[in-house]
Amino acid sequence: MAAVSFYFIVCLPKPAYAMHIMEGYLPPGWAIFWWVVALPFFVLGLRSLSRITQATPELKLLLALAGAFTFVLSALKMPSVTGSSSHPTGTGLGAVLFGPLAMSVLGSLVLLFQALLLAHGGLTTLGANAFSMAIAGPFVAFGIYRLVMQTGRQRLAIFLASAVADLATYLVTSVQLALAFPAATGGFMASLIKFTGIFAITQVPLAISEGFLTVLVWNWLYNYGRQELEMLQLIKND
User: Fold this and answer.
1) What is the dihedral of CA 120, 71, 86, 208, to 10 degrees?
2) Would you give the DSSP letter of residue 81?
3) SS3 of residue 43 by DSSP
4) What is the largest CA-CA distance in the chain?
5) Measured CA distances, 185 to 115, 157, 189, 200 (Å)
């Protein structure tokens, strides 16, 4: 029994297939490339957070809540196929509340703490992980929210923003891995199909679950944090 357990724990897992790309897995060129791509968003995000906190310091607690929500959800690693892992991202809520630039900072800080404290992700791959989860996901969430809000159905907009942001994150991660490791036969596309297939089985239901959970949190904010939501002009003052 111990031998079987050792085999499944040590021999089967392939950490590079986890939602956060593991430390040292990306070739140096690609690791540097994603750092360079992610840094401008982080700088703009700092400016966005500065404007928010200076204009409405009362929103600092809500900012902390958005960051904590992302940290907790993205730390919940769940087994996937071939020894990989999947997890929710939790970035949709913050993107709806404060916009995608603010989440580029909150999400990056979450990834940094997870790399240092939980060995989830890494420092050399922080740029790549930040781009997929803290930048691409929130921008998709914000766009989906604005698009669906044209129908006037806010809770549906929040559900779809959160769920699609989750899926967008795993898709961008798959693209990053496929670019870095094209298949010997079939190149980039074959590798992309391989990586997306690894996530798809668990990530789709996870994304749906995250959407529902985000709506539940929104309902709680709607009932107990109306003043903050009114400041953000997300609901109207009754």
Assistant:
1) -170
2) G
3) helix
4) 64
5) 33, 41, 10, 22
Question: Can you tell me the distance from the alpha carbon of 113 to that of 144, in angstroms, rounded to the nearest whole number?
Answer: 28
Q: At what angle do helices 100-113 and 60-74 cross, to 10 degrees?
A: 50
- Cα–Cα distance between 71 and 7 in angstroms, integer? 30
End-to-end CA gap in the chain: 63
pLDDT in tens, the chain (238 residues): 334 333 333 333 344 445 678 888 899 999 999 999 999 999 999 999 999 999 999 999 999 999 999 999 988 876 555 444 578 899 999 999 999 999 999 999 999 999 898 888 889 999 999 999 999 999 999 999 999 999 999 999 999 999 999 999 999 999 999 999 999 888 999 989 988 887 777 788 889 999 999 999 999 999 999 999 999 999 876 5
Taking alpha carbons only, the member of 54, 171, 169 closest to residue 107 is 169
Contact 130, 86 (CB under 8 A): no
Tell me the DSSP string of 212-224.
HHHHHHHHHHHHH
Contact predicate 63/49, CB 8 Å: yes
For 183, the 3-state DSSP assignment is strand
Other C-beta atoms within 10 Å of 65: how many?
18
pTM listed for this prediction: 0.87
> Which residues, listed in sequence order, are joined to residue 238 by a DSSP beta bridge?
none
